[in-house]
Amino acid sequence: MGGVTVPTEPFQELVDHARDTRVVVVGGGIAGLVAAWECAKVGMAVTLVEASDRLGGTIGSARIAGLELETGVTCWSTRGGTVRALVDEVLTDAAIVRPRDDREWIAGLPKGAAAPLPTEQVLGIPANPWDESVRRIIGWDGTWRAYVDRLRPPLTIGAQRSLGRLVHGRMGDKVLDRLVAPLTIDRFGLDPVDVDVEIAAPGLSNALTRTGWLGGAVADVRVDAPSASIEGLDGGMPQLATALAERLAEREVAIHTGALATGLVRDDGRWTVELAMIAPEGAAAAPDRLHADAVIVATDEPTARALLAAALGTPAFADVAAAGVARDVVTLVVDAPELDAAPRGAHVHAVPGGSRATGLVHETARWEWLAREAGAGRHVLRVAFGAPGIAPATEGLSDADAAVMALAEASVLLGVHLDEGRIAGARRDAYTLVPPASTLGRRERTDAARVAISRAPGLAAVGAWLSGSGLAQVVADAQEEADSLRHQVLWGAEATE
Asked: What letter would DSSP give residue 487?
């Protein structure tokens, strides 16, 4: 019986070429780790440098009151299946879990009231404003105003890209301020006016054209929209960063922490990455420069723009102000048996102006594994501060005073009085909350940056500032950009003009 003979020489040449191709990844957050993995797993010689003393970026952990708790990213969106596929690839024994409680509430309503977020909604926009679950949030006057949406003539239906302007024009202030704004500000750090409807709620504008009214469009979209939820890891997300680092080590990737990239220069067809060591004394030293055929910049936006501006010979590239909102997150471990029943679900969003906090996540209500580790009566709460144009209320406070403020806000948001004696431990983390891909104008901003970067051969950039926030977005983008760069340097594809 005959067979097909596969020529081995071209394949071996490609393998050898990959081994001889040196890639430097600047930045050891999740985007950098994923990009390094995409290159290393095809045999490319990869070096990863990270300025801090650890890998993972916004995926991290801290020990608080005897518990090893996640800081930063705690879960991912299931949409697209990208993160789950990555977990299956690098962390084969992981236990993937879904929230045991995913209820959301709105707090900060008049007279200190709170209510569950209606289920029949998209981005907070209700399908039926007469539904009691909607009416208890927006009141009778808000309900009557929202009903005007059904009576208005369809003059500009489907043409409004701003979520805030669309909702305000069709359903009025109460729907915008009490249903839509709490979600966009708490989840994304975005005022509703800056949310692009076409991206945040695909199909809503077309449905509005078909149905003639916004509530009907919401109902229409909910019928056809693919289901999406969140997933996490039993034991916490830092396992993913650790697994990626271990897989990289198995592929003989050189990893240098405490190594700050200070310059990026192309000369004679290759890149040189200038480094400065900022690691503690006694740590393994990195070289002061690395030579590479390709470089992937995976840092935050200000650092990336400074490096890329010099590499591209366009100083103005560094002058673009970084986008994002300053946010403080205070993680509290509290002894409060009255929270065992999860009185307000897993996530409470605050009405703007109704609280100093933007929202709260009741982590032990959300995750069974964490509740099991914490034990009965002990709870983990994450209280967020900082909104568009408003500095975090905790700014300037000591960590101890920030914890006291966070507990006071948690008491209001959860409707359960918690005094300072309940605090078993606390930690404050400061972030720049990068806007999501659904931000108005973000696509144009990102396209302009990527066009400029693509003009340099063997150069790519990844990270939330380009992909938009959210682990699923960051991972998918890092994979795509790394794959494009691989094709360019291994197959000889021309840089995009």
From this structure: H
- Total Cβ atoms within 10 A of residue 82: 22
* Alpha helical stretches, state H, 251-289: none
Sheet with 259-267, edge to edge strand ranges: 259-267, 270-277, 289-292
Q: With CA atoms as reference, report the closest residue to 461 among 472, 450, 451.
A: 450
Neighbours of 458 (CB within 10 A): 19
Assigned token pair, 405: 């403020």
Q: What pLDDT band is residue 6 in, cutting at 50, 70 and 90? A: very low
* pTM higher than 0.90: yes
| Cβ contacts of 247 within 8 Å, gap of 6 or more | 37, 40, 41, 90
* Whole-number pLDDT of residue 495: 41
pLDDT of residue 11: 58
Q: Residue 269 phi/psi, 5° resolution?
A: 80, 5
Alpha-carbon distance of 323 to 207, in angstroms, equals 31
Give the tens place of pLDDT for each residue, 306-352. Answer: 999 989 989 888 888 888 899 999 999 999 999 999 999 999 999 99
Which residues have CB under 8 Å from 137's CB, separation 6+? 106, 109, 115, 118, 178, 179
Encoded tokens for 92: 């084969």
Torsion 467-473-475-477 (CA) sign: negative
